[in-house]
Amino acid sequence: MGYRIAPRTMLAAAAMLLAGCATVAAQSQPAPAALQTAEQPELIATILGSGSPEYRTERANASVLIRYGDTRILVDMGNGAQARLHQAQVPEETLDGLFFTHQHLDHNEEFVPIFIHALLGGRKFMVAGPTPMEAILASTLANYDADIRYRLGRIGKTMEDAEKDYTLTELKGGEDFTIGGIRVRTIRVNHSIYTVALRFDAGGRSIVISGDLVYSESLPVLARDADYLIIDSGGVIKKDGRTGPPGAPGGLRNARAHVTLDETGRMAKEANVKALVLTHFVPGENDEAATTAVLRRYFAGPVLFAHDLMEIPAREP
Ligand SMILES: [Zn+2]
Ligand SMILES: [Zn+2]
């Protein structure tokens, strides 16, 4: 089966190579005319899943929906993301992007159903994530080949038709491209597997999603002056006195996989972000005051504690 790099990504990559910087093609681009409605569109993030790998019904695993006008990008899709997506009244077939920060199970567990529903929907969309994105997509198509062909047949389409509807990009970090009026930039960060942070800019607002990480010099570069940094809650303090971060999975001895609060505060300060949004919470009640007090050593701006279906910025009542 043929997989194609998104033409937009290729153009952006070519521009970066030619110009030696990543700011040529997409910077300051207004939203396309088609997206201009009576009101100016607004870049909004909805936290679909604010939890961590441990299964709970009250917090889905990692997932954030980015919206601008009628452009919709889903970043990570851990357990529970599909249900939250529908609670946010966003059907899979309206998504323009299925993106990943990394391929840990708590970030990609619901890729299969979301991808297949999007594919059956017939809208053009982009799949993008770090390695092994290509293998995950290939195995999904192979495992569900007969099922997908059967469902496509019921709506008069073939697999060959459907393959024209999506593109695949294996993110390395350093990408810079535009999708539906949203400028997207990525950078590699330090985690136990290949991980990228993603930045979204549109309509004068910027939102960064860190993915899971430990301190990374690269993150403040990507997140420079951003309005919101949605970040791994790492060392959040719990009311029972427990303090993260959890140990690294996979037997990585003496290695951490998640930030400490000091690291979060340092990166927020270095990036000069306007607001922090902590997410990816382990079970237990967060001690928001104690957690914020640690972050205040470095960061004076708003500190928000994510919950499922929380909108950023918060909606006016
Ligand atoms: Zn995670
Ligand atoms: Zn992870």
UniProtKB/TrEMBL annotation:
The keyword Lyase does not apply. Keywords: Hydrolase, Signal. SMART domains: Lactamase_B (SM00849). Residues 1-26 form the signal peptide. InterPro entries: AtsA-like_MBL-fold (IPR044094), Metallo-B-lactamas (IPR001279), RibonucZ/Hydroxyglut_hydro (IPR036866). It comes from the Bacteria. Residues 60-251 form the Metallo-beta-lactamase domain. This is MBL fold metallo-hydrolase.
